[in-house]
Specification:
alpha/beta, 3-stranded mixed β-sheet
Amino acid sequence: MRWVRTEVNLDNHVRVPKLDPCMESPDNFVEDYASNLSTTIISKSMPLWDVHLLNVQTSEAQSTCIIRVHHSLGDGISLMSLLLSCTRKASDAEALPSIPTIKRSNTSNNSGGFSQFLLKLWCLALLYWNTIVDIVMSLGTIFFLEDTKTPLKATLPLGTPRKRLVHKTISLDDVKLVKNAMGATINDVMVAITQVGLSSYINRKFGDNKKDNQGAKGNASNNLPNNIRLRAALFVNLRSSAGIQAFDDMTRRDSKARWGNHIGYVLFPFTMAIRDDLLDHVREAKLTGDRKKATFEAKFNYCMARFFPKWFTNKMSSFPSRTTLWFSNTPGPAEEISYFGHPVSFIALSVYGQPNALMIHVVSYEKKMKIILSADENVISDPHQLCDDLQNSLELIKNAVIARKREDPQLYKHH
């Protein structure tokens, strides 16, 4: 396969179905429409994208625009950059939206001294040790190491099932409140929220199974088996420039944040546990996140995904399904934007076609955070309930932070 230059016929790409504005449940219609798209493909005889304009009012927006793009055109960072280049600030119809920035921690220090030399030597040794361990785990996962069977884990062969695409909105300010209180990152907090939500969901499912087998005597508090291995393929932007970049900068030949697919992934262990102190999930997510930053695992997996399939096609095709889910966090605009004069109510990114029963996307927009699930309906029959569990997890963690603040006001002095 190779790219060829072609003429774009918009009639082949833009769909505007005639809809009944008085339909009974427009929210369900839009959700079903998006899910039905997951059972179809874009013809390779034309540029690999299409747009669907659904002019029906839902609970969140006056109308919905679904932009479907083949992943070969670019990753989430590239596509978000393209989207922002097509929008304007809602407060100024002529101004491009501000590009969200992410500061990467810089541990380098030019000061000399023997102690500084030893610290750098230790960090380098830790980096290579972590990389060796993570590469061994990745190779083990390719050949035999599989996650524990849970209500979220699909079994092989998966085929190409229909994906149910659902989403919930949470407060970005609440996420930042937890982030600042715990000295963590937004990604750490979202991972912790996901751990709590998945633990609650799986615990309920195992409890229901226990009640089915034992009548009403099942333990309602903790039904989780011990030592559940549940991992996410957590995607990482490999560009030297962090975060979203301006579209013009990404399309320059000499750009350090080039357009395309420049993402790797790390195998991120999620702890399934019912804990009295929910803040332990945040602490654990931060520790694991910090460790995953000190490894070349993402770059190794990126190279492996590009070159390894030439020799081990079958093994590589089954590798992603040995994990339970995929997880991705994409920053969005920090201010309200408009799309060709239409105010944007929300942005929800997702993917279908992946060989997993579950993928979780997290996208920020203004003061909102969207949690989007792409779920295999044959495995996860109630994705809305799972979404509710994730939404409720933030509320529980936020309340735990507020309660801890009352006990220890010094908690908020760490930034």
